[in-house]
Specification:
Helix content is 20%, strand content 25%. The chain contains twelve helices and 29 strands. By secondary structure, the chain is of the alpha+beta class.
Length: 527
Amino acid sequence: MNTSTPAKDNGIEKKTFKGDRSPRPSRVLHLCRIPSDATEAEVISLGIPFGRVTNLLMLKGKSQALLEMASEEAAVTMMNYYTPTTPHLRSQPVYIQYSNHRELKTDNLPNQSRSQAALQAVNAMQAGNLTVTSALGADGGLCPGSVLRMIVENLFYPVTLEVLFQIFSKFGSVLKIITFTKNNQFQALLQYADPMNAYYAKMALDGQSIYTGCCTLRIDFSRLANLKVRYNNDKSRDFTRHDLPSGDGHPAVEPPIAAAFGSQNIIIPSYAGAAGIAPAMGFAQGTKNTVFVFGVSLPVPAVPVALGSLAVPTSAASGQMTVTGVTGIPGNSVLLVSNLNPEVITPHGLFILFGVYGDVHRVKIMFKKKENALVQMADATQALLAISHLNGQRLYGRVLHATFSKHRTVQLPREGEEDHGLTKDYSHSPLHRFKKPGSKNFRNIFPPSDTLHLSNIPTSVTVDEMKKLFANTGSTVKAFRFFQKDYKMALIRLGSVEEALQALIELHNHDLGEKHHLRISFSKSTI
């Protein structure tokens, strides 16, 4: 990571960005590599989801900023969120650490009017007083509307209503979505329950790509105050009503909506699949892409099988919405994992596998249908991360499916109730990877691959011994290499991603002797 040059600007000391060697927690945060064209409102947007932002000092000459939160707790929450996943402004990464300053005193500093106007407007929005949000106007990027209009540029893959719902639900309750095509561009209107939700989403997602290198979102506030949806189908949906008909596959557009986009006809695109790549495009189902959620880069399958179940499902027969299916809105930390191999999978195996992407608290394999299991993660963010990385992966000869469950917790068996060892509580397991705030494990989360990163290896263990250990799990060892500067770590490449998944389950925490237990994670590199 590059460092910034230590200097003083307006009496505020700026220090070298040192990543792991950040100072102790402070409610003032130091932001580095701010894009030169980023607005005050955009910088403030990074802190808003975690609490009230009380001050801001932009140091544009140094591409830096100091952001003050109302409490140290809010700053710590923000740091914990952004430690494993780098936030982005205008598609550029921004790095954050604690400042040495305990508070910001900017009363006597010049050029603070824009920052103070931005803070006043944002605080007014949070307090519900939307009348003063015009303090910034278009230049500041704020708008009181709860309806967003988006254009998807470079539409290489189809973008479905379900995909939009999954992404935008990260920022709040999505009420309605209408999708259509105009001037050969795929567009959508999306209404939130709260204008602040719309603001968060616009600040975080505008300019981001849903998939790597394509399907780029261009987002503006719509002039519409409310969307009117007549049909619930794959092109339009009102999540507040389950009584709407499915129509003829084309959502009705109310006159105010048509007027907002001119007099040209709105053509609804037709795709072969509701949540997948059209077969004619010929993409392999194993292909991985990247979805950006709240500035977080999350890989998803090219055919996102689980996305339909994350949104409100529709009946294939009637097209009517099933209200009881509203279970995938982020906030739930319990996953439903299905299509497991019941002859091989165990609660411990699921604990180890899903533990790569978050701390697993409980696992329950269904007694009557052992192909299904519930996995309870520490929080909803970790649950979403696990879904994004593991859904669609092959495991023990089957394609694993992971989505959010309708359950909010995994119940332990009652005292004396026979469970056959299918439910396990791992809340206090010493194998949790993310229990320690700021752990380096947060920065080493990668998609499943055929190359594994091994650590905590005794120096007495040889290459042949390590190869034999993995070969005994049924894996084909393609390559193995110790780190030159640290023989306690190594990379091993196996015959397939499936082999790597299974080897990780079977060998993570394996006793190598000399009080060393093997640690395994997926590698971003290959050999």
